[in-house]
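In the previous chapter we treated chains in isolation. Here, by contrast, the input contains two separate entities that must be folded as one system, with a combined length of 1025 residues.
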Amino acid sequence: MFGMIAELAKGMGITLKHFFQPPVTTQYPEVKRPVRNRFKGRHELKRYDNGLERCIGCSLCAAACPADAIFVEAAENTDDERYSPGERFARVYEINMLRCIFCGYCEDACPTQAIVLEHNYELSFYDRQSAIYTKDMLIVDVPVNGRPTPQVVEPGVFTKAIPMMENPE
Amino acid sequence: MSDLITLTIDGVEVSVAKGTRIADAAKRIGNDIPVFCHHPKLEPVGMCRMCLVEVGLPVRDRATGALLTNADGSPQLNFGRGLQTACTIQVSEGMVVRTATEPVLEARKSVIEFLLTSHPLDCPICDKGGECPLQNLTMAHGVGQSRMHFGDKLKLDKHVPLGDLIYLDRERCIQCARCIRFQEEVVDDPVIRFHNRGRSLEIVTLSDPGFDSVWSGNTTDICPVGALTTADFRFGARPWELTPVASICPHCPVGCNTTMSTRREAMANGRTVIKRIMPRQNEAVNEIWICDKGRFVHHFADHANRLTQPLIRQNGKLVETSWGEALDFVAGKLQIDAHMVAGLAGARLSNEDLFAFQRLFRDGLKSQNIDLAKRRLAGGDVAAQVGLSSGSNLKDLGKGDAILVVASDLHDEAPVWWLRVKQAAERGATLVVANARATRLDAFAAFSLHYEAGQALATVNQLVSMAKVETDTAVTNDIVSAAEALFKAENLVIFYGSEGLAYDETDALAKLLGNLLLIENGHKHAGRVNNGLVPVWPHNNTQGAWDMGVHPAYAPGYKPVKEAGLDATAVYAAVANGDLKALYIAGADPVGDGLMPDRGKLDFLVVQELFLTDTAVLADVVLPAQSWAEREGTFTTGERRVQRYYPAIPVVGQSRPDWQILAQIGERVGLGKPAFAASLTFKDVARIVPQYKGMDYRTLAQVEKQWPDVGGEDLYYGGNAYENRSGLGQQWPVTAEKSAVAHFDVPTVKTGRKDGLQMMWTAVLYAPGTLVDCSDVIAPRKAQPVAALHGTDAARLAVADGDWVEVMVNGTAVQVTVRVDDRAPVGLVLVAGVPWWPGTAVADLKKIVAAALAVN
């Protein structure tokens, strides 16, 4: 009987302790909680340090996608108009965010680590059309020392698409 | 059969024909021995070593020759000392093959590792990735990890244009030589070759322009890696994203079975477009090949200039209108005096379209004035009686058989027929070629008879009657020997075309050749399998047009009409002199083809077309039709095989299928409700045309297993050609198969030949025209207007190679380049790349001086 009361008091004690602690509510969107490192948010298409796009338009992400959310259309690079190392680049890259289930298979499938599910979780749309993220929306900004694509490059430098995980010189 | 050989492969007994290689025999029982260089359509070379197996032969006693047995009674086997290549070794009686033993598996691993030593492993960007034999076999037999350093791989050119159409990636090439062997052995265009040796080995092109062959696209199909890609499909899509749709090539009377790979495309605003065209296996028609025209000339279907809405002339201008208005207007205008209205159709339309066309005119408007807009080749009625018998296959012709080709350049008119005739000649068939000029088939012919322009009928007459003529020239001797060879032949197939012949000459020619097939010489050729006449029609469905009765004198099924209407020539004359008030043209461009100068004194002209052609511009109403890629239907080949094609891409604009437009006009002139599907129109065809009896869309879609098996689900031929799942078509039987056929009365034809230097139109594959002009990829190969003439003629006329001259074609002056070519016969100028004209004409070459050219 006495033991029961002690347990009850202990539990009420914890309640009482939290009663005097500051509240945990964050004032979103003014305040944003950081997400975990491995959080899977909106995709980004990455670039190499020199500004070239990592994406080579191979469409393996689209093949891996269980929700058929990704659409890729490839075209051929030239040294006068180069988007990515190698011959092939993504002329069209679209992800339908309404379809995406954020499983990350596209990341796994990507041979150049071009597509990464990053930390942006703020995805809301007024209509279906705006749920389709195009390449312009997905691709990251050009790095400080890089040049925007398409680039005019010297012939014979960026002949290989993969495997070339490191930044090309 | 005595020439069957029984062997055991992995414990399974199989009987195959003598001469079969082990790899092909194994395929029969579903045992896939991996291969790279081997291809059942090519001679074996044993270069890649992927197919190594253990081969055991029964041991015989040296003295007696008796088979030795083990103690348990099983035959003693000698497995030799090593592995042997299954692709080069022919099967022999009692042979035992082991394909899954430890040494065999070890050898496969090693070969894969060796092939990958310098392979770039760029599968993600490779067009073959996903249907690549190297990829598949590496997954199945490779070790997974290489002992080679990635950095040591050779860095080679990845973008080597072998020509305008084919690109080579030197890094990916595994040096199997399939492409080179195909070009040499199969199509006799040895324009690519290995250069250097070992690691420096590369494929180079020897021709100028590069890879100058009309078969080049096939090398990309049979390439077991992604080394060869087409300019059309390069980086176009990944194979697994493509939807295959069965189709029939819309270009020539061969009727190659094709598959269109389609995909939705963002660049086309989300429309589904044709990404590539590949062959679909049909061993009786095109085997696994198609020519580059069939492969690359498809862009017209998606072209931005396609008509999307009906147009009607208001205040002198064509303005867009609604279908209802256009059809009501057309139906109202056409119902005038039956003698005052005529219809001309193109031979590219489907059987359903052509049937609906003749029905509208015959039943609806009570007019017999219907014909094909381009009357180039006659003899459909002859072919209906003594045509190539049903069940024939050019692949079955060989030793003891004969093929006669008259007045046709098969290589440019019907490339796959050229290929199959050539192959029959190589198998031992006697090939006789008769033409006014040398063609590429001459190289394989036992007898090449080159007659003088205008002498085609006389020559064939000699051939048929075997009459010795007085002048004992070499040609005459050749004719006699050739005629003997044709009479002696077990089977006889005759191709005839219209090169240098007028329409009535081709009619006489067809009948002469029909009589040749009817000659009794122990056995009659007509009506037997692998015998008969094949007209080399100018278009893909000219045969269907004859069958459907798009002819002023024949109703559907070759029933003669009581009172024949005006033929196309008469129609054009009546247009000019005002005897005709209304003309309906479906799928043809007589103005652009130079057959009709303008709309003459017509009150009313309707054109049903894909594009605003030169004829359509003059029309009062233009009705937009659907191309073959957007709809279904059937085409009939020159071998009278009715084949079905399927819709692949969405409809362009408001265009409608031709048969539907015609039936909807028919509804307005009292022909009843139109059928709502092409299949129902075809049911009408099968009901009314006796030759098509028993056919419907289901029977046309029937398939059977095709051998050699190259289009299946296996790991190494999968990307070669598409498996035929959508229909092999049906060949309709000719009269001679069922009943006796009387000899044809050959009309005497006066050649309208005038004295002087003669000029003849010759066919070229990529002839300029509405369809070819739409394909940018083929543009560099498009035929330029050229006049080829012999050196002596050139000297006499004082023109040199490269000069520009003016010639009159159908009454219009055309500028052509002179090519001095001693292969052209003396006294005959060969003109190509200009609109067709019938027969020969007097060549009145006017040299254009440079100054005048500059002004133009």
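The CA atoms of residues 279 and 611 of chain B lie 27 Å apart. The first strand of chain B starts at residue 4 and ends at 9. Compare these points with the single-chain example from earlier in the chapter.
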